[in-house]
Model the fold of this input.
Amino acid sequence: MAFQKKAPGDIKAGQMVEVAVLAEGPIGTGGAGPLIARLRIPVERLRRGPTGHRLAVHIRKWRGTNVVPITLTAPGDPWRLVSEDPPADLRALLDDSRFLAQHVYGVASATLDLFESTLGRRMPWNPEGRLVLKARDLVTATDTGYERDTNIIRFGSIDRMGYKVPTALFRDIVAHEVTHAILDGFRPAWGDAMATTEQIALHEALADLVAILSVFSSRDVVYRQLEAAAGGFEAGQDVDEAIMMRSIFDFARDLYARGPLREPFVGAVPDHWQELPEPHKRGAVVVGAVLRAVHRLWVERNRRFGEGQSLQQKAESGSIVGTRVLRMLIRGLAYMPPVDVSWHDLLRGVMASDLDMVPEDPRGYREAIQAEFSGIGIHRVSLSNISGVDNYQGLRYPIRLTALGSDPQEVQRFVWENPRLLDAARLERRTPLSSTRVRTSERVTPDGFVVSEIGASFIQTVRMSRKEALVRLGLKTKRDYVDIRGGGVLRFDAGGRLVYAALKPVMSRERQGALFVSDEQHAAEQEASSGVQNKFHRTGE
Done:
């Protein structure tokens, strides 16, 4: 095997390159060709495949099972990605294996970079290694999805207009499935065998929102939607609030009509929606609330700029608002507990993280999200003591700052040395923590300052006999044993001081009783989420 004698000296950390992808999917509207988006993604050395440090794309021939390696770089220079626009003809586009590889790699890389640049840290896979995206696989459309524990995403095909169309050519589908993989690496317990329907629904809602809002971040896509919603824009016509609302919801519905096989939204919020047994339908209610917040903020932004804006300017405002809300959601992930997350945990995480980044919130982003969540029955988060640390006065810090940012044992020692914190987490004293993670992050605030923090999460899983579960937690079960767990996330500032805490107490009769309820309820939860516990497959019925 031949190797280059010397790597290029002009490749710098953080250097980006532009790559053309389909803005939505391969099938345009009104007979027009597909829209193209140009994404900026990190530069890396790409082998044939294409295969990079974190991602590998496999393209299978239309007939047979052989994978054909694709080269996306210039001859002799694996650091220089060559971006090519897609063919305008649909048949040629569907046969273009090179563009399929470029599109999948570009969208996956951009999605990963969105999370890493927003959270200020590398996002691991579960398990470690490369994420393999099989862009033209021998699976059905409903089995398109991310497989837990294998680092594989399989993309099948759908029948459209008499053609067999790879689902991987739909930008939202790629972003959705890559988001599942990112969340699974970041918080494995949100989708494992002990996860409840609520956690699976949250997984699906976040993946939907990343898919929708990352596509909506393209000004050209928003412009086209405004035109369509207005029935053809004419000079002097006012694009009112109703048109803007229709444009964003029609856009999201259209994505899912042309791509996955489910309807992601509901009209009126169903009664007792938080008890719906199907995770996608439960998550759809929250997706709708976030999109209504985007609409509210978009309308307000247009009002500030006054009359006389062009349609392009209004479209750009929509893409800016969508991107800002999307980054708020992603930043909030680092403030959420590693187990048993709820919709209220999501809202608290978004509020707390945004409060750290933008203390004043002059444009009312936090209020818009709070209001829409309140509208679907998720209680507002009080901004007073939102960090939770006021509950733990007089903490001791017998720790080494250098170790705190890298060594889980140092975090465990901090918890142990502070009995008040230990009691709040209600840890089982005889059982060791089953997982402790420590990650540093650096984020840039709007005023240009770098916020450096250390995030630590811990989980404890306790196996209890039938008798012990009854005596200690009041759980009534006919099983020989039950597994219960809890944990928390702690965030420290650059000086090693605790600035945020979100805990899920382990040995809590009230919390564990609400989660377990009964053998029948426990079995129903497992059955409801079993279809997506190991595979985030099946986009719907």
Summary: Residues 1-6, 233-237, 256-262 have pLDDT under 50 and may be disordered. The first helix runs from residue 90 to 95. The chain is about 40% helix and 15% strand. The first strand starts at residue 16 and ends at 22.
